[in-house]
């Protein structure tokens, strides 16, 4: 994934110099004055008195709208340049969909309305909205501007097609634009005068909330990710493997395995899209998978990845630090079922390679090798105690505590991080986390998930596994940190660690005491190797007599 981001940034840098990007972004934000905008379509509720025939509705089209719900869905990938805080990102292989009505008179296009930080403009759980294009005959469809995409009771957003002029630094809003539908693609007609076609998301005053450039769709067809049959029994497994980013350490993932006759479905083999499923065929103790299967449940929600396989050489690395391939990529690969140990294994030098679908690139983004899948023991487990507990006075109102945790039990059984919680005890009394003190919380209680984080008050770190908490200042002598495994059925197991208040412990410390060890942390509580000039860091000093001094310094 890191290499993918690097590759995209390099690609953008070659296509658009950074200075031009910044200028282009700024002018696009102010390039459509309200007085030059056409009036968007009327915002109205659905009514039964609409005229018959082919027309554009003046209501928002959603997945539950009858005409959209009754249309035939076909999986496509969207290619475009999208606006982000870094400028224009070329984002190909975005999972998308087109829907076709039964008489071929209309195409419904899945819309993705993001802001520049790739946050959906319609909220956390929006109903999918759609654009409607009308058939002009001979495979040509007209997509009209002004279609209503979003409303939250206060704000409405609309679609518009626009032509961007480099000479005037302005966007001309077009009443409509035409698309050609072929067997494999749905693409806009190019602008004859050389201007670039922009798809804009606008408010009623003409301000841009989002835009994409040079947008087109490619048909994915039969490569779409398979669905696990409802009749298949799904079991959770622990997937242990090496990855290209952590080749010296074996990494753990949660995978799912489903058997349905001779068909086998496995998730977790994609590092960028861990919920995605691929399908294989079982013959005896062997499971065979075909290369080129698509995974489209990525972390950003839309990107599609292709899984291939090859034998790799970890002694010879590429310029990016990836293993080199011993031979060409395999058209299919095999896992073996070890029935004695109830495990599913790949050969040690067999790697599952992953690249963004459609990239004309012989390299790959990530890989997993030396794969072992073992059944996950779904029971309450006693977690390991918190370690490296630190404390400091943050300001006049709040203090800070940080600690490391493990996602293994005392018996070395793996625990899902989503089932691990922590709680704090001051002088033996549990602290209640309340929304008044921690606005990111939905309610109050003693237990907080170790992977929970709030932008202002609670922070979580996965590598190393560390939690940092800022809490209201209080007097205390001992602090207890309890790590608890909360099993889905409610069973719990806990392990407590206790420290003394370091400020109290420092009273009477000899100034001649020897320093045994010094640790550095950034202001967020994450451990760092050394402070950089001009930074504020937390310095934790361990003395020879066992006392600990914690202070904040400006370097």
Sketch the major β-sheet. 8 strands, antiparallel, barrel
Specify the structural class.
Answer: mainly beta
**Widest sheet, order of strands:** 1-3-4-5-6-10-11-13
What's the average pLDDT? 77
Distance between the termini: 34 Å
Count of helical stretches? 4
Radius of gyration: 28 Å
State the helical fraction: under 10%
As a percent range, the share of strand residues is over 45%
- Which consecutive residue ranges, at least 5 long each, have pLDDT under 50? 1-55, 505-511
Shape: globular
Q: How many strands appear in the DSSP assignment?
A: 38
Explain this structure.
This protein is 6% helix and 46% strand. It is mainly β and 555 residues long. An eight-stranded antiparallel β-barrel has the order 1-3-4-5-6-10-11-13. The longest helix has 14 residues, at 2-15. The model is unreliable at 1-55 and 505-511 (pLDDT under 50).
Quick structural summary:
The chain is mostly beta strands and 555 residues long.
Ordered list of secondary-structure elements with their pairings:
Blueprint: H1 2-15, H2 18-30, H3 66-69, E1 72-84, E2 87-90, E3 94-100, E4 106-110, E5 130-137, E6 140-144, E7 148-151, E8 156-165, E9 170-174, E10 176-181, E11 185-188, E12 196-202, E13 208-219, E14 233-243, E15 250-260, E16 263-267, E17 277-283, E18 286-290, E19 293-295, E20 305-317, E21 323-325, E22 332-338, E23 343-345, E24 350-356, E25 366-375, E26 387-393, E27 398-404, E28 420-426, E29 429-430, E30 448-449, E31 458-462, E32 465-472, E33 478-486, E34 492-500, H4 502-505, E35 515-522, E36 527-528, E37 536-543, E38 548-554
Antiparallel strand pairs: 1-2, 1-3, 1-13, 3-4, 4-5, 5-6, 6-10, 7-8, 8-9, 8-12, 10-11, 11-13, 12-13, 14-15, 14-25, 15-16, 16-17, 17-18, 18-22, 19-20, 20-21, 20-24, 22-23, 23-25, 24-25, 26-27, 27-32, 28-29, 28-30, 28-33, 31-32, 33-34, 35-36, 35-37, 37-38
């Amino acid at each position: 994934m890191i290499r993918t981001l690097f590759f995209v940034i390099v690609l953008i840098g070659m296509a658009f110099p950074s200075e031009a990007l910044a200028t282009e972004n700024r002018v696009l934000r102010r390039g459509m004055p309200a007085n030059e905008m056409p009036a968007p379509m009327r915002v109205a509720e659905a009514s039964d008195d609409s005229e018959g025939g082919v027309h554009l509705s003046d209501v928002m089209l959603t997945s539950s709208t009858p005409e959209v719900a009754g249309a035939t869905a076909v999986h496509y990938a969207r290619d475009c340049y999208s606006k982000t805080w870094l400028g224009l990102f070329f984002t190909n292989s975005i999972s998308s969909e087109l829907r076709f009505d039964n008489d071929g008179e209309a195409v419904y296009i899945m819309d993705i309305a993001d802001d520049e930080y790739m946050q959906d403009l319609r909220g956390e759980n929006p109903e999918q909205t759609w654009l409607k294009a009308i058939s002009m005959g001979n495979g040509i469809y007209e997509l009209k501007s002004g279609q209503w995409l979003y409303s939250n009771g206060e704000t409405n957003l609309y679609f518009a097609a626009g032509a961007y002029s480099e000479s005037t630094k302005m966007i001309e809003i077009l009443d409509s634009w035409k698309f050609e539908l072929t067997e494999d693609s749905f693409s806009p007609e190019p602008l004859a005068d050389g201007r670039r076609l922009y798809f804009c998301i606008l408010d009623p005053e003409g301000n841009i909330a989002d835009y994409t450039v040079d947008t087109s769709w490619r048909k994915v067809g039969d490569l779409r990710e398979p669905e696990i049959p409802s009749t298949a029994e799904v079991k959770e497994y622990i997937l242990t493997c090496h990855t290209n980013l952590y080749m010296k350490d074996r990494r753990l993932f949660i995978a799912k395995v489903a058997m349905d006759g001779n068909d086998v479905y496995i998730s977790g083999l994609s590092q960028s899209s861990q919920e995605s499923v691929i399908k294989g065929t079982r013959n005896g103790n062997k499971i065979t998978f075909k290369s080129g299967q698509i995974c489209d449940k990525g972390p950003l929600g839309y990107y599609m990845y292709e899984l291939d396989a090859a034998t790799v050489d970890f002694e010879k690395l590429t310029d990016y630090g990836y293993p080199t391939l011993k031979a060409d990529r395999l058209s299919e690969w095999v896992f073996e079922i070890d029935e004695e140990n109830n495990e599913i294994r790949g050969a040690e030098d067999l790697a599952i390679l992953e690249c963004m679908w459609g990239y004309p690139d012989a390299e790959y983004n990530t890989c997993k090798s030396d794969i072992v899948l073992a059944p996950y023991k779904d029971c309450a487990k006693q977690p390991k105690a918190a370690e490296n507990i630190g404390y400091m006075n943050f300001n006049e109102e709040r203090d800070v505590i940080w600690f490391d945790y493990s996602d293994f039990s005392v018996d070395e059984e793996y625990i899902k991080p989503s089932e691990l919680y922590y709680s704090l005890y001051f002088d033996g009394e549990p602290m209640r986390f309340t929304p008044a003190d921690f606005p990111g919380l939905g309610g109050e209680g003693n237990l907080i998930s170790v992977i929970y984080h709030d932008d202002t008050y609670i922070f979580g770190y996965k590598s190393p596994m560390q939690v940092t908490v800022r809490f209201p200042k209080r007097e205390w002598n001992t602090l207890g940190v309890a790590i608890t495994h909360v099993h889905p059925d409610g069973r719990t197991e806990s392990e407590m660690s206790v420290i003394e208040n370091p400020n109290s412990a420092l009273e009477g410390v000899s100034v001649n005491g020897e320093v045994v060890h010094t640790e550095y942390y950034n202001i967020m509580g994450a451990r760092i190797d050394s402070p950089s000039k001009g930074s504020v860091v937390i310095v934790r000093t361990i003395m020879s007599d066992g006392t600990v001094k914690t202070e904040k310094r400006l370097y």
